[in-house]
Design goal:
By secondary structure, this protein is mainly alpha-helical. Helices cover 65% and strands 5% of the residues. The strands form two sheets. A two-stranded antiparallel sheet has the order 1-2. It has a two-stranded antiparallel sheet with strand order 3-4. A hairpin with a 2-residue loop joins strand 3 and strand 4. Helix 9 crosses helix 10.
Amino acid sequence: MRDIDETKAPLLEHLIELRRRLLWSVAVLAALFSVCLYFARPIFAVLVQPLLRAGQGRLIYTDIFEAFFVEVKVALFAALMVGFPFFAIQIWKFVAPGLYAREKKALLPFLVLTPVFFLAGASFAYFVAMPWALHFLLSYQGEVGGVHQEALPGVGNYLTFCTRFLFGFGVAFLTPILLMILERTGIITLQQLRKHRRYAVVASAAAAAVLTPPDAVSMMLLLVPLYSLYELAILAIRLTHWRAARSAAAVGSAPDEESEGPEAPPGGGGLAVPGPFNRIARAGGQKVTIRSAKRAFFPTGSGPANFFSALPKRSPQTLAEGNTGRSTL
């Protein structure tokens, strides 16, 4: 029984299947967008809570259409966040028929953990990173050279600030899953991850600079967790290797029906050896049976002494003649 779908579909059928998945995704996104647009104000009210906790209770908009487009962006962002599990399932259903059973088994846990890690990153941004960043950025208010400096953030700018934080931290928290998938597929190895830690620091800094607003505090708030997740991925991969080695050792030490003999060379086959036992050796990663000889080495009823006594005996005169002949040659 094969562990892969044996149906062979032409390219047109694959394209039809892809179109069907995309249409379902677009329909669900449109439905979620309609619902979220109706609740855009309550959703935005949740997003402004870190700003209120930082002591800023005022938002402005200078463009006449800015407030309307902010609600549209809020609804679209919320629809994408809520519908992400459904979109991931559609991608999985399109890709899964072309995977072997072992590949499905390896990738399915990562698919399940992806939304969990993304929500964990977004939650960290909302409850930890955004309040710290807002406290720092709003601390510049006050008297500067006799002039009162006051922060009046616009609704559009604040929404961009929130989405960059939530999306950036959510994607950053997927780093362990991405690294474990790459290691599982053989693209990278655990030794490479250990060796290139300094490059991981540079890559984390670059990602933090791109995914967060352009200030040092926001960048450090993402840089530290991002590199910590890199080390967490290394630890998780080591744990996976340790469990795999432990399982392999448990399987290898399991008692068989026949006792295991010494290892045979790669490519070796069955070997008949004298003795009343059968042994199993491993050759080339496979078990090879070492079978006992079908007949005894010594005739039945005779031991080694009787066997050698039955050999023809040579007299001393015959031995002397043989030695004289060899010396003549």
